[in-house]
Design goal:
The chain contains 15 helices and 15 strands. By secondary structure, it is an alpha+beta fold. The strands form 4 sheets. It has a 6-stranded mixed β-sheet, with helices on both faces. A hairpin with a 2-residue loop joins strand 9 and strand 10. The relative contact order is 0.16.
Length: 373
């Protein structure tokens, strides 16, 4: 019997993508996750929700067990012992967290195997390409990582805290400056204001704001803030909140600079393919106008003194994945979980019992011994 057939006859694996803000979970070979939930655990004494990544040490392990227990028995409703696990993770995932995750799966839930797959690689399976510049705009940071012929070019990665958290801080700052009471500005409200009212403005309008000559703003909107309260979201806030992704300073740390620096660190014969195969993923990438603005910013920088004569690129092309940007990586993990790689490249319970550690993506010995992707 072919190995692929034997995989598909097993109960489908459970696929996790545990992000710093939201967790996606569902079953392998499905087109979308069953659930998208905050990565939080409730304190039974206070009833307050706390982000899972804020814990450390023994407390982190206990909270991971609590979190996974809820996911297994409240949401997907399966016994962990009967299922294989696929974990979609960033190559920059904290070692402490992934070790706690593996320990919880193998020691507490006694799963048979766990397949760790890297976010920036698996999303390429959704596009059927092997080379791309993957830009992950999550909650904490923006991570740019080139993938060439199925290999992650780790020495060229770029990352900066230019993501949802920075945008939330800017929205909060502008609303407070406009006279909105701080007690109304919950994280849920700011998230809704961002998603429902804001957008990325055009390059020429952004330049006018930078020069202190603001153009005629877009219309203001009124947004309910719980109960009978209504806050006013100005037109300027709506189109400038995302300008934190494009800071203009001497450090050149904006998102377009990260993209060009990642390409520049790659060999000459890779650069054109990377510039013509750009993929945006993550919840922040879903905001209207982002792709068009990046096109304008990148073309503008190519003609600047900083990159003129260094990058001889003609165009930048962006892929449109077959899923929403916030769960494209999960979909890649779902595809991987339906192939024979689930058996041939997983970390088994037996292997973990002999050597209780998770192979590191950046460690060459781990790649040779564990069959890294």
């Amino acid at each position: 019997m072919p190995l692929f057939d034997s995989v598909m006859q097993e109960k489908p694996a459970v696929v996790f993508e545990i992000g710093s803000a939201y967790t996606k979970l569902g079953f392998a070979a499905e087109a979308h996750p069953r659930f998208i939930l905050p990565t939080e655990v409730l304190d039974p004494n206070t009833g307050k929700a706390t982000n899972l990544f804020s814990f450390h040490g023994t407390e982190l392990y206990d909270k991971v067990v609590t979190f996974l227990n809820e996911l297994f028995f409240k949401y997907v409703l399966v016994s962990p012992k009967d299922r294989r696990i696929v974990v979609v993770e960033s190559v920059l995932c904290p070692t402490e967290f992934r070790e706690c995750l593996a320990k919880a799966f193998f020691k507490h839930f006694e799963v048979s195997l766990v397949f760790f797959v890297p976010t920036h690689l698996v999303i390429l399976t959704t596009l059927a390409v092997s080379t791309a510049l993957v830009i992950d705009l999550g909650f904490k940071e923006a991570v740019v990582l080139p993938v060439y012929s199925g290999v992650q070019v780790l020495h060229a990665w770029q990352a900066q805290p230019l993501a949802s958290e920075a945008i939330h801080s800017e929205i909060r700052r502008q609303l407070l400056a406009s006279g909105v009471t701080e007690s109304l500005l919950t994280e849920d409200l700011i998230e809704n204001v961002k998603v429902r009212t804001c957008f990325v403005t055009k390059f020429d309008r952004a330049m006018k704001y930078r020069e202190g000559k603001p153009p005629t703003p877009c219309p203001d909107v009124e947004y309910p803030a719980g109960g009978k309260e209504v806050i006013k979201v100005s037109g300027e806030l709506r189109e400038t909140a995302f300008e934190v992704l494009f800071p203009e300073d001497n450090d050149h740390l904006g998102l377009p600079y990260l993209i060009l620096e990642a390409i520049l660190k790659c060999p000459l014969d890779m650069r054109r393919q990377l510039s013509e195969n750009i993929v945006l993923i993550g919840g922040t990438a879903m905001i209207p106008g982002l792709t068009a603005r990046l096109q304008e910013e990148l073309k503008h920088l190519l003609d600047s003194d900083l990159y003129k004569g260094k990058l001889f690129l003609q165009s930048f092309k962006f892929h449109t994945p077959p899923a929403k940007a916030n769960f494209t990586a999960w979909l890649g993990g779902s595809i991987y979980g339906g192939t024979d790689l689930l058996i041939s490249r997983s970390l088994t319970k037996e292997a973990y019992s002999k050597n209780p550690r998770v192979p590191d993506w950046t460690h060459l010995d781990d790649k040779r011994s564990h069959g890294s992707n």
